[in-house]
Backbone:
């Protein structure tokens, strides 16, 4: 059995990690470097770096921030957001990333995926699919970090990107993202059981059980989460806890009010988004107890699951 990868996702705006609901209402939590170092030290298998506004503003990813994050980790780093050309990809890989995830530009020009695979290899190229459930359950591809509808059927698009040669798919439920209501298991299972490439499940983790279910019931090859990890390492109850004695993650240290009312209400009047924070070792322990295979020791033996 292959190890299920646990992948924290860093949604980046400027040099900071932000978190919202359904890709909106962002609130600053801390710097990208701080979170990357914490997650590497605590056993993350990979890290996803997602520039939240690069595609929207039609600008390139900030390579200085990518370099700063890459210097903090020795695990695979996937960079997403604003990638428009093979030249962009080359620059990002040279800055220290191991993979890139492409959504908006690939929808506009699918040939970009084919060219990128030929130039850099399928192991470097990830298709990012942001899917929104329409009435009657249709899954539609959205672009620009969940802001622009396309009318494209998400599953048909997934088959297309596989034909273009991508190495894996990062599948995000826009409806569940930031909600803490759990992953869209039906969607994940559809993609994971029908497609021949690994599926990274994203969007909706509110508890450890949600992460376990994405792999156990949804058959995801990797599970990405943000809120449950971010809040564990930056919540007030953990203020002053020094990881490896070299830094502290504190929500108050780089607080930006963001759209607080939106974060409280969300779309459709959601209040009190229920997220139960967890450490990465805690998630992996639960996965092992559920019979799933995970990597149990970080590079250098800095933590153990059991």
Residues:
């Amino acid at each position: 059995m292959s190890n299920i990868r646990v992948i924290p996702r860093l949604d980046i705006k400027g040099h900071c990690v932000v978190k919202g609901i359904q890709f909106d209402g962002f609130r600053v939590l801390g710097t990208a470097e701080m979170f990357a170092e914490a997650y590497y030290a605590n056993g993350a298998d990979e890290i996803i770096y997602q520039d939240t506004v690069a595609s929207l503003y039609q600008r390139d990813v900030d390579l200085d921030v990518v370099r700063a994050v890459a210097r903090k980790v020795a695990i695979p780093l996937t960079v997403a957001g604003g990638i428009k050309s093979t030249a962009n990809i080359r620059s990002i890989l040279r800055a220290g990333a191991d993979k890139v995830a492409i959504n908006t530009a690939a929808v506009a020009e699918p040939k970009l995926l084919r060219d990128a695979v030929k130039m850099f290899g399928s192991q470097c190229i990830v298709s990012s699919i942001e899917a929104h459930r329409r009435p009657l359950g249709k899954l539609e591809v959205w672009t620009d970090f969940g802001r622009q509808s396309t009318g494209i059927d998400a599953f048909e698009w997934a088959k297309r990107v596989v034909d273009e040669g991508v190495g894996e798919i990062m599948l995000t439920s826009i409806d569940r993202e930031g909600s803490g209501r759990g992953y869209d298991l039906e969607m994940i299972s559809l993609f994971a059981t029908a497609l021949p490439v690994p599926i990274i499940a994203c969007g909706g983790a509110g508890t450890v059980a949600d992460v376990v279910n994405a792999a156990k019931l949804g058959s995801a090859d990797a599970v990405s989460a943000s809120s449950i990890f971010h809040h564990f390492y930056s919540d007030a109850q953990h203020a002053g806890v020094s990881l490896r004695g070299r830094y502290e993650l504190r929500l108050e240290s780089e607080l930006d009010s963001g759209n607080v009312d939106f974060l409280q209400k969300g779309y459709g009047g959601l209040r009190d988004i229920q997220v139960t924070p967890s450490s990465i070792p805690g998630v992996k322990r639960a996965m092992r107890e559920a019979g799933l295979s995970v990597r149990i020791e970080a590079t250098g033996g800095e933590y153990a699951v059991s």
